[in-house]
Amino acid sequence: MMTITKLVIYGFGKHENVTIDLERGINVLYGPNEAGKTTIRQFILHTLFGFPQRGSSLLRYEPKTGGAYGGQVHVTDSEFGPCVIERIAGRSAGEVTVRFPDGREEGEETLGRLLRGYDRQSFESVFSFSLLQLQEIGRMNEEELGQALIASGTTGAEDLAGYKARLEKEMDGLFKKSGRVPEMNVLLNEMKEIEAEIGEHRKNSDAYAPMKERMAEIALRLNEIAEEESALTADQERLSILRQAAPLEIERRKTEEELQAIGDAPFPAEGIRRYEALKDRKIAADAAIRNLQERIAAVGKEMPEKPDAERLSKLRSALSDEAAWHEARSLETAAEHALRELTAMKDGLLARLGLADEETAALADTSIRKEEELHSLTEEHDRATRSLERLDERIAEKTAEAGRIADEQNKLEASGPDDGEIEWASKWPTLKKRLVAAAAKQNTGHSDSRQPILILAGLAALIIAMAIFSENWLFAAAGVAAGAASVYLLLRQGDGNDGLTEEERLILSQYGGREEELDRRAERVRRHFIELDRLIEAEERIRSEVGELNTSWKSAAAVLDDTEERLGTFLEGYGITGRLPAAIMPELFRLVRELQETLRRIRSEEEKRDRAIRTAGAIRNGAHELIGHPVPDHLLFPGLKEAEMYLLRTGEKRDRLLEEQNRLSDELAEAESLKTTLESEINTLFATAAAEGEQAYYEAAGKASRKTELVEMIGRIGEQLTRIGAPGKAAAPDIEQISLRIKENRESLQAIAEERTGLIKRQAELKAQMGHLVADTAYDALLQEFEEKKAAFRELSVKWAARKAAVSAISGATGRLKEQKLPDVIDRASGWFRELTGGVHAALVLNVDGLIESEGASGMRFGLNELSQATKEQAYISMRLSLAASLLDSAPFPIIMDDPFVHFDRARLGNMINLLEELKIHHQFLYFTCHKEMAGAFSEAAVISVAGAGSERGVLR
Amino acid sequence: MTIRFIHAADLHLGSPFKGFAGLPGKISETVRESTFTAFRNLIDYAAGARPDFLLIAGDIYDGEDRSLRAQEQFRQGMETLSEVGVPVFVSHGNHDHLSGSWVRFSLPENVHVFGPEVETAELTVRGTNVRIHGFSYPERHVTEPVIGHYPQADSDAVEIGMLHGSIRGDEAHDVYAPFTKDELLGKGYDYWALGHIHKRQVLHKQPPIVYPGSLQGLHRKESGVKGFYDVTIRQGTPSLEFIPAGALVFGEAEVDCSGIRHADEWLDRCMDQIRAFREANGPGLIDLLLFGIDEQSEAMFSDAPESEWLEFIREAASNDFPDIGVHRMTWEREAAPSVPGGLMRDVLDEIGSWDMDGWKSRLSDLYGHRQAYKFTGRLDEESIREIRKEAERLLTDGLMKGGRAE
């Protein structure tokens, strides 16, 4: 026995954190409407059998407020002991844990075993029922009610029954044994039709073999026809030939007769043409012979004498001198030319030398030695000339210098000082001495009398420098004097003279302080005289030098005269007179030499010319002799050549004519031989034709020609006959007969052609038919369709069979149930039903149709639908409880009831309570009710109040 | 000494596809032409590669259903190979056995068709003798072993055996000309060109014993890339290259549905998988396997019946991938709803308690129907498994979803 000891709801529907303790035996869970009684009942079922799938018809009772979903059901089981089944959110069915006191935690599998393999549906159909289910029974028809009653104790059989009905309906839709409309019956009919069609096709195919045979026959017959036709055609051809050949045959016979008449007519082949050709050639040969004879005579006349060979050889020899001739002539001309040039050159040279003739010059000595002599003479003459020129220059120079000095002297005298000055100057030095002495006395020691002395010394130095510079020795002397004076003054400086005299005072007053100025005036005078002295001296020196130079000039002029004298003598030796400048002497000497050379060449050229004239003369004479008369020189060799040419031509012509003569003779001989041959051939021809002379020959020819013609005609006819294919010689043909046979043959051929057309047409038809059969895919398609239908049929068969099996199984199982279990269940239920109804209803019985009926106390039977609502419910509850009792061993579950007793009257309710109290030993009962009195109805029951609001914590007893 | 040849088998030309229903129009067309397309691919390849010869180990046609067109297509293919000078060796199998009454098309000279008894065709390839042994099925069923009639190898030549049949003890297939691997190896051949089994497999490597598989998948269970082998035997050493030829590939695309809330997310994932399939295999037919279905995606899927979801995907796929057909959708739920106790379990136990007869009697309305039985397929263990699974799904699903209201 399994007892639920406690429910712990974490969150389920409206309940949250609710704990309910339950007792063994009867538990009454009381609460007003909407208190959450049904929710608690669902909580138990959900927790045991899993939360329903989302989307299933059952509510899942997930808390609307969110929070935990699920809870625990605490159970004590006679077999498994105490355990806690917890189911919380997880997979859609929820996560299950079964906990045992020893700490084991198991899952769905253990729960399954704990629930003895029962699923919710099976459980509900026996152990959990509501008023609603009882009320539903009232609306069912009798049969279904009965089924449901059975089912109610046999786990969901009411569904099974419905399902079975559905399957049976489906089966009927698929197949009925003798139906026409169900799918498979339709298919069967279709297949039958296809089978018939396939049979049809097979039959068509069977026709193929006869067709094939017929085709073979036709082919055979066509062959025969072809043979017949070709035989007829051949005959037709033969006949047509015969008809064509008939006229020819007749002509042949005629011709053969004429030929016989002519008989044998000998004549050489091509006799006429050959004869006439021979004749023509003979005439031609005669003409040729005559012509040749005439030509031989003409050649003989034309033939020249044989030419003179000796003269020819002389001519050739003379001709060979042509080169020598021309050479001599050109030598002569060249020499003349050279002579003319040389003579001109000689005259030129003579003119340049100024000679009247060349006699002297030609013999003069022009050796090197002479040239050397001339050379030295010339040089000597040059030297003398140059010496004289130099003296002239120097004399002119000196004369000019003397002039210049004289000028200078005059100029100096004109600018010189006057006489008073000159006199003062001569006194100044004395005065000065006195002045100085006076100054010195006056200023002993202090006056700087040195200054004038130093100036004097500087002046002296200047003068000396000027003298040195101008080489004026008067200046130099003055300088020295000045120097000496300054030295003297310097030396005297020491003696100061302070004791002045009056004179001295006068001097000092007159001249004192003016010393420098006075010195300069004295000095100017002095320099004038020095300059004058120098000029006079230079004049004298130049005069003496000019005198010396004049003496030298005279001696030089004498030398020059002497050398000119000697040169003139030298030139006279060469025939040159008169004085000539020495510079051209060498040129003269060279011209003389050139003249001598020219004269020598003139002589040589004259010799050459003479030699050439001699040679040409000899050649000319020889030529004139050979030509036979004198000719101008320019025609000399052409004349010789002409003579030679003439001789040669004559020779050639003679040779040619001789050759021509020989050739013509040969031809003549040939022509004569030909003529003889032709004559003999003509005779042979005559002999062959057995003719005496030309006339007879021509007659023979006529006969032979006719014979040939006839033979040819026969041949031609023969050929024609052969060509049209006539047989050999035949009897005279019968044209009418032939035409008749041709007509017959044509008719036969016509008939054959018609037959063949028919056969070919038939053949084509057959071929098309056979081709169609052979290529027909309809048969394959049909087979395929048939197979597809078969497959479809088979699939449907399985479908049907599966339904049939399912239906059979359901019937079988329910049947067996009815047979084995139901009687016990009904017996027990029957007893309880009787108790509940207080004996009003004696029993529940199963009638023959498998329906449950109620048997009244009077033995009257009622269908369940005939019972009152409450009684029906009592019957139902009895059945359920009986079932539960019968399953006690295999399924000792609590029985959960949802207010099923509301329609019961007090008496029957009392009976019911008594029954439950009896049964509570074997089952725990959870009784949910909204009727307060029910809470106190049981004598021994745990009463649990389910709070109205439902969400309070805890539910108390 | 190098020999190169192509080994193909199980062409099933003109065979319809089995087990597909409701294919969209364009795909349907492709599907119908697929065996021909695959065959043309084979011929084009052979005409291009010009091997020394081509072996076809049975089942060129699908049987009684063979159409004239199929035969004509085959003949044309052979003509093509004749033009390029590739000899073809054909042994007919159980589907195209010799005693059929159909019209025979004359095949070109290059095609050698083996007779009903084991015989040997010889040819010389560049100086090497090649001996090919084989036979054609004289009738629909050859249940006796034929391997005993094959001659022992002659040491000089390259020896090839063609055999259309199944290995002994293979229960999955009806027994045809059964043999064992040792028997084949015992012949000392250089290559065994097998046919009949549509799944490609190499039974033995040296010497090779090979099923090339069907040229084109013909049933939704024949998934994966199909084709033929291009075989080269060089100095006695064989090398095999598999050449895909199928016009369509049947396959499965798995779509992870975890964490999906909105249909467009799911559509994107489906399209991604379809695209991946398309890129890997080319045109094809797909089963979409939905896995990782969690509460969220389950909640989304529960908005509409499964058939509508399939329709939704098909529509979307036909826009983006006109050559991909979504054939079906399988829902692989992570956790099946827990089976409730009580009556529900009784019901499911009831289904589980039925034996074969139990099933048959319960389903006889359909499976025993005089017309329908031909098309239902046999009620074997597999189909019962399928039906049972579906029935259980109906029960758990239907009842769980229809939970009662309070």
UniProtKB/TrEMBL annotation, chain A:
UniProt entry tagged with the keyword Coiled coil: yes
Q: Which Pfam families does the entry mention? A: AAA_27
Keywords, A to Z? Coiled coil
Coiled-coil regions, chain positions: 374-408, 588-615, 654-681
Residues forming the YhaN AAA domain are 2-202
The yes or no answer to whether the keyword Coiled coil is present is: yes
Its protein name is AAA family ATPase
UniProtKB/TrEMBL annotation, chain B:
Q: Which Pfam families match?
A: Metallophos
Keyword Protein biosynthesis on this protein? no
Coiled-coil intervals, chain numbering: none
Q: Which Gene3D superfamilies match?
A: 3.60.21.10
Which GO molecular function annotations are given, in alphabetical order? exonuclease activity
Instruction: Cite the entry's keywords alphabetically.
Output: Exonuclease, Hydrolase, Nuclease
Task: Look up the domain of life of the source.
Answer: Bacteria
Q: Where is the Calcineurin-like phosphoesterase domain?
A: 3-199
- What is the name of this protein? Exonuclease SbcCD subunit D
Species: Bhargavaea changchunensis
Organism ancestry: Bacteria, Bacillati, Bacillota, Bacilli, Bacillales
